[in-house]
Every structure is written in structure tokens, then in C-alpha cells.
Design goal:
The chain has 121 residues and is an all-beta fold. The chain is built from no helices and eleven strands. The N and C termini lie far apart (40 Å). Strands 2, 4, 5, 6, 9, 10 and 11 form a seven-stranded mixed β-sheet that branches. Strands 1-3-8-7 form a four-stranded antiparallel β-sheet, with no helix packed on it.
């Protein structure tokens, strides 16, 4: 069974940092592009970042550029989202998703259940 599990969420003060992890089971993550998404209370889900299967191509939402960094370790079947300079508006449930194509895009095949990030003083 293809599965993604996010971890690393929690409560952090504004200006702080968190690193989210996305672990894959049941498939080899290295063949998939991986995206991070978030959904804040009362808002629609939005794309945050994406990384190609080999890691050579990444993209970011304008709202997180310069603060967030996506990376992957295919040997460990893991993808990470390093989040720095966090703001209250970054508060959301964060999801990772995989698509069985090497490049980032708009359709996704496997979703995790999410991890909650709360930025508050």
C-alpha cells in the first residue's frame, strides 16, 4: 500500500523554525516528484513547494520564497521542508503528496494525512 506520513509539526513562536519530514512506504520515493501543501483554517489548500524526483528542480509559493527550503534524500525515502522565519500566517496543516512523474505538476497520486504547524506567541 502506498503511503506518505508527515511529521515534525508543532507549536513555534514567530521567527522560529521547524523541519517537516515526509516518509514514504510501499513505494520508492526516488521515482516521484513530491509536493508540500498546506491548508489553513477556513481556507483552501495551497501549494507550498515542490521538488522533482532527482532533486534538481524545485519551486516555491511566493509567500514562502526565501524562508522555506525543500530537499530530499532518496536513499532514505524521505523529503523535507525546512521552514525558517515562520509567521503566524504560516499556521496550517501541512501535507506532502507524490506524483508518479519526475517533474512537478498539478496532479497528485498519493497524499499524506498532514501535520499541524502552529505559529503563535
Amino acid at each position: 500500500q502506498l503511503q506518505l506520513v508527515e511529521s515534525g509539526g508543532g507549536l513555534v513562536q514567530p521567527g522560529g523554525s521547524l523541519r517537516l519530514s515526509c516518509a514514504a512506504s510501499g513505494f520508492t520515493l526516488g521515482y516521484y516528484a513530491i509536493g508540500w501543501f498546506r491548508q489553513a483554517p477556513g481556507k483552501e489548500r495551497e501549494g507550498v513547494s515542490c521538488i522533482s524526483s532527482g532533486g534538481s528542480s524545485t519551486n516555491y509559493a511566493d509567500s514562502v520564497k526565501g524562508r522555506f527550503a525543500i530537499s530530499r534524500d532518496n536513499a532514505k525515502n524521505m523529503v523535507y521542508l525546512q521552514m525558517n522565519s515562520l509567521k503566524p500566517e504560516d499556521t496550517a496543516v501541512y501535507f506532502c503528496a507524490a506524483r508518479s512523474i519526475s517533474r512537478c505538476g498539478s496532479t497528485w497520486d498519493v497524499w499524506g494525512k498532514g501535520t499541524l504547524v502552529t505559529v503563535s506567541s
